[in-house]
Amino acid sequence: MNKRSFMLGLMVVASSVLSACGSGENEESAAESGNTITISLMHRYQESNIGKSPEDTAVLDGLKRFREDYPDIEIIEEQLQNEDYSIKAQALAAADDMPDVFIVPGSWMTNFVDNEIVLPLEKELDKRPEWRDGYRAGTLDAGTREGQIYGIPIAAGPTHLIYYNADMFESIGYDQFPASWPDLMDAGDKLAEKGINLFSYGDKSKGYAMSSWISALTDRINGPEWTESILNGDGAKFTDEGFIQGIGIMSELAKAGYLNKDLNSVDNDTMVNYYFEGRSAAFVSGIWSAMNIVNNAPDGIKASTRVAVFPGVENGLGNPLSSSGGAGVYYSVNSGVEAGEKLDAIMTMLDYMTGSDSAKLMAEVGGFPAYDPGDFDTGKLHPVALAAYEASAAADATKIFDLWFDASIVEVLNTGIQGVMAGSRTPEQLAEETQQAYETFLNQP
Predict the structure, then answer these.
(1) pLDDT number for residue 137
(2) At the N or C end, where does the chain have fewer CB atoms within 10 A?
């Protein structure tokens, strides 16, 4: 427990949270007192989101089917809001009192693996090769450490797609999204003359810039080999020209007035609402925003919305059709669960919740599952959702920085990019600060 307490020091653990959390021992006693297998499950998918969120709809449908097919297995389930889940899960991890099955964001995985909180699932998946091999390329990666799989992915898809108003671009002479950066800046200038922002942008909570912009732009310029070199400590630096260029592109858009001036003080919801109100011609987001448009955009905006990705960069080393993406959230199993009937039941439950049938349903209601759904009824999708799905399926997924970089580096980038976008620091200064944080991380004992 000493090691866990030390390594999980970054987690805020309130005594009031802990006192309300621990129920694992009681559940285990209940399970052992009879023949019924009992599985404790904690996650952030909710009944109230069924029909609204593709992930919630598909995962909870899978859980419902599992309960119907295995009525003798008792599931003690807790559904939490995202923020509540994060607080409680970290508190339980610090107290060594996690439930049997729980959600682990990819950015937590290294910490949870190092502290032996999660169970390696490689052997269990090897027993189920048809299920194991159905996941899209790369979606298991953020849940894998040193060749061992510790997490079953749920949804995937890009964090970078551009949703744009085709009518607005047509009015300034573009019958499709600009295919080069000079054309994009030209479009921004022409839209500004009409009092319209090229992009709406909202990074109040930090993380949006890195997830949806920086990860994709850096790959456009440097290519994926640069990112792998950074992750492996093989010589690439954040002060390399390509990284500075990517941050510079974002800075240039802000300085030119092509983004909303309150870009650091509004959240993603407000950013999207600016697009719905016609204040911007486009916004950058992940595939999850497709259903937001379908469900909430005014009819005229919905009808004119199309999907694109950032244009290629001249002499860039990356694929101009790539997008930062992959799976970011995983189901993991408590390391205290032993091989046997209970673990078999857990793996079957996870197959129901994330595997073939769940994936097909998720795709049909506008999501992008980590598991390849194969053929499904695309006729059920609104054209915006279908366009987002097709763009996601066609894109080469490149790494989302905040899922792979150490938290110390992520914090410097998340905070620093706000300064760059506000004009209080330069891309070069941010690159130097990030490199210093990176070198500190590399030099840790």
Answers:
(1) 85
(2) C
Rounded Cα distance, 315 and 305, in Å: 30
Chain centre to alpha carbon of residue 160:
10
Per-domain residue ranges of the chain = 2-157+327-373, 161-324+399-442
3-state SS, one letter per residue, for 367-398: CCECECCCCCCHHHCCHHHHHHHHHHHHCCEE
In 10 A of CB 157, how many CB atoms? 28
Q: What is the pLDDT of residues 407-443, one digit of tens each?
A: 889 999 999 999 999 999 999 999 999 999 999 999 9
**The pairing of beta strand 152-153 with beta strand 161-165:** unpaired
Determine the residue type at 414: N
Pick the CATH number of 161-324+399-442 from 2.60.15.10, 2.120.10.30, 3.40.190.10, 3.40.50.300: 3.40.190.10
3-state secondary structure of 78: strand
> Which positions ≥6 away from 166 have C-beta within 8 Å?
176, 304, 305, 306
Residue 319 confidence (pLDDT):
86
- Residue type at 61? D
Which helix (H) or strand (E) segment is 346 a member of? helix 341-354
Pick the CATH number of 2-157+327-373 from 3.40.50.620, 3.40.190.10, 1.10.10.60, 2.60.120.260: 3.40.190.10
pLDDT attached to residue 11: 42
**Would strands 323-324 and 397-398 be described as parallel, antiparallel, or unpaired?**
parallel
Positions of the chain with pLDDT under 70? 1-34
Q: Check: CB of residue 273 under 8 Å from CB of residue 289.
A: no
Pairing mode, strands 323-324 and 74-79: unpaired
Helix axes 289-296, 268-276, angle to 10 degrees: 50
Closest CA to 20 of 87, 112, 100, 76: 87
CA atoms within 13 A on the CB side of 180: 5
Task: Give one DSSP letter per residue of 214-233, joined into a string.
Answer: IHHHHHHHH-HHHHHHHHHT
Q: Identify the CA nearest to 218 among candidates 253, 250, 187, 180.
A: 250
Considering the chain, what is the average pLDDT of its residues?
Answer: 89
Tell me if residue 11 falls in helix, strand or coil. Answer: coil
